[in-house]
Amino acid sequence: MRRLPPPPITVPAAPQEDHPACPLCGRPMVPGASLNEHHLVPRTYGGRDTVTMHRICHAKIHAVLSEQQLRDHYHEIEALRGHPDIAAFIRWVRRKPPEFTDGHATDRRRRKR
Fold it and tell me: Is beta strand 50-54 parallel, antiparallel or unpaired with respect to 35-39?
């Protein structure tokens, strides 16, 4: 049986509370530790352009896609939203508050223990 692709993700046009919207999930971006800069083309491949997004959104991109995949196919926000795993993540994270960070996520030093 053939699976149909997930419906396209739409991002709210107007950010809430005078904060800009995250380009990936569309939730408001509150200044502070919950934000990161994402290189659309990885720096290892000469990328210079960045976009600010939630730390959890940025982490999901790098958990799902390799730097080569980012360079070759997913160097635009719309392409990222079209990836099935990222689209499922966006549907899940959209219900979370803007400052949400996954309590299960750890930094690389702590994972090695």
Answer: antiparallel
Tell me: the pLDDT tens digits for 101-112?
876 545 554 445
94 CB neighbour count, 10 Å cutoff: 14
CA angle at residue 28 from 12 to 54, to 5 degrees? 110
- Residue pointed to by tokens 């982490």: 59
Question: What is d(CA 46, CA 39) in angstroms, rounded to the nearest whole number?
Answer: 10
Specify whether the CB–CB gap between 64 and 86 falls below 8 A: yes
Spell out, as residue ranges, where the chain has pLDDT lower than 50: 13-16, 105, 109-111, 113
Mention every residue, 6+ apart, whose C-beta is less than 8 A from residue 101.
34, 55, 56
- Whose CA is closest to 96, among 6, 20, 5, 30? 30
For residue 110, what pLDDT is reported? 46
How many other C-beta atoms are found inside a 10 Å radius of the C-beta of residue 73? 13
